[in-house]
Write a structure and sequence with these properties.
alpha+beta; 523 residues; 11 strands; three-stranded antiparallel beta sheet; 15 helices; flat; four-stranded antiparallel beta sheet
Length: 523
């Protein structure tokens, strides 16, 4: 482990952090997250600039509002769409209550859902647990928000973390930088875009507010925790780490002998390419979707002013000595808009299928995803489950590590000003958590459910009471009471019908009287 208490070592680290190679890694990460957060316009513009001239792109209607990146990532990140069930083991009832309240206050499910989304977006995410407002807070960090001190014997593991904010104005520069794959490989106009930053730190809230913080570095190792400035000066009074552990959880599936996972950019690349294709289509539709008026005549006979409209008459003078017959008309390009749309939809379906996601997740049609039966719905759910099965296993381990960090914080700072809201005391060393994730369940329509119950009852597999229990999802005892109530209501209904039912003799006498009256009226 390097000696971080040495000023020379700290300055060397800062130099590496501020190196162009490291900044380029952060630019790629930032670009992916920026696209995911709907800031796509500059990327679509740059991609189009790699294919057309700047004047052409400036005149094009640029479409950048369809964010496939966000939609696909959120679809694939399915682990925490339903809150899991957590059981805290070897703790008292009071401590269990306090832990449940702490997890709720930390918004664990929401934060872990975000980490799952970032894992799908960048193949890696980092959880960071820190004290906040009398309790604990969990933050999801992306690769552009931190640097690592790798382990000398295993570079896939971090011995230390250095956190420093990476702002939008750090992206621009004197030369272009690759932020996504394009034919030219460069975001050619990127350096001209400052993301609404004027380069001045205003007193109001603006994107420049954290510029000063960019020159602050939060350093964590198992032994040390301090803040240093851009000159390597330690700003913390006590640089020791009382936790004696790193409050970080590195979430990933696989690495290749280096800490940072080599990020794929398929989702963000396709999102930009898709919007660029739509922009190109919109431009074709605008440029070739209307008829171009033309006039063909002798140069000497060209009218000075021509007004075209449904209530206008165009008079074309004819020169009998000229062999050119005057002609006025409209030329139509007739672009294959339908074919272009079909091509774009085919690209979308192929890309979605390659990701293992139902192509109907994003569609150019107005119809949403529909299921004709519960079995079809279950198969769709199982397909999503299969696609994220590894994530469930991964996040079981994340939950265990997260609890250990929380337990360390509690046992270190319980009864102090750092955690004044914690009232559960010190947790036992054996305390742990067990997590049960919700899996897909069979979903039947009401018609399918009733048909199944009827067939089982007709075959003698279930009784009338059991049929009620299955239909209503209640116990057999409760179903027995429901069956008795139904029987009593049927008996009451039969009695009421018997009371109003006429006597047979009265009916016959009534018919005879009616016949007599009819005969009298005829007479």
């Amino acid at each position: 482990m390097i000696n971080l208490l040495d000023i020379g070592t700290r300055l060397s680290l800062i130099e590496e952090i501020e190196s162009e190679e490291n900044k380029q890694r952060k630019r790629r990460s930032f670009a992916q997250y920026d696209i995911y957060k709907d800031n796509q316009h500059v990327y679509v513009y740059d991609y189009l600039r790699s294919q057309f001239s700047q004047n052409t792109v400036n005149e094009m209607p640029i479409i950048s509002s369809i964010n496939l990146s966000r939609r696909i990532v959120n679809q694939e990140a399915s682990v925490y769409k339903n809150a899991p069930k957590r059981s805290f083991m070897d703790v008292s009832e009071d401590q269990e209550y306090e832990l449940e309240a702490l997890y709720e206050q930390m918004k664990i499910n929401s934060k872990l859902m975000k980490s799952n989304q970032m894992l799908k977006l960048q193949d890696q995410s980092l959880l960071y647990v820190v004290p906040s407002q009398g309790g604990l807070s969990i933050k999801v960090l992306l690769p552009h928000q931190y640097d690592v001190i790798p382990n000398e014997s295993n570079p896939e593991v971090a011995d230390g973390y250095i956190i420093n904010t990476f702002q939008r104005d750090q992206i621009g520069g004197a030369k272009s930088v690759p932020v996504f794959n394009s034919p030219s490989g460069l975001a050619e106009n990127y350096q001209n875009t400052k993301f609404y930053s004027d380069g001045q730190n205003q007193k109001i809230a603006d994107p420049d507010d954290f510029k000063e913080d960019n020159r602050r570095y939060i350093v964590w190792t198992k032994e040390l925790n301090f803040i240093m400035d851009s000159k390597g000066n330690v700003l913390s009074e006590d640089p020791t780490n009382p936790l004696n552990m790193l409050p970080f959880i590195d979430i990933f599936h696989d690495k290749d002998m280096e800490y940072f996972v080599v990020m794929g950019q398929a989702i963000t690349d396709f999102s930009i390419q898709f919007n660029a294709a739509l922009s190109d289509l919109a431009n074709v539709n605008r440029m070739q979707g209307w008829g171009q008026a033309y006039l063909k005549c002798d140069a000497r006979m060209v009218p000075q002013n021509i007004t075209v409209g449904p209530n206008k008459i165009i008079k074309l003078p004819i020169d009998p000595n000229s062999q050119i017959v005057p002609e006025f008309g409209f030329a139509n390009a007739n672009p294959d808009i339908a074919g272009a749309i079909k091509f774009i939809e085919t690209l979308l379906a192929m890309f979605m299928s390659s990701r293992g996601v139902d192509p109907k997740t994003v569609t150019g049609q107005g119809d949403g995803q529909k299921f004709t039966s519960g079995i079809e719905r279950l198969l769709a759910m199982v397909e999503k489950f299969e696609a994220s099965k590894e994530d469930y296993s991964l996040y079981k381990g994340v939950e265990v590590k997260l609890f250990e960090i929380i337990k360390t914080y509690i046992n270190t700072y319980s009864g102090t000003d750092v955690l004044p809201n914690w009232a559960g005391g010190v947790l036992p060393e054996a305390a742990s958590v067990e997590v049960e994730f919700k899996k897909p369940e069979m979903v039947q329509t009401d018609q399918e459910k009733l048909a199944s119950i009827q067939i089982r009852k007709e075959l003698g597999l279930i009784s009338h009471v059991e049929a009620i229990a299955i239909d209503r999802g209640i116990s057999d005892d409760a179903a027995e009471e429901v069956a008795q109530d139904i029987k009593e209501e049927e008996m009451e209904l039969q009695m009421k019908l018997a009371e109003v039912k006429p006597d047979p003799e009265d009916v016959m006498n009534g018919d005879q009287d009616a016949e007599t009256e009819s005969e009298s009226s005829e007479t």
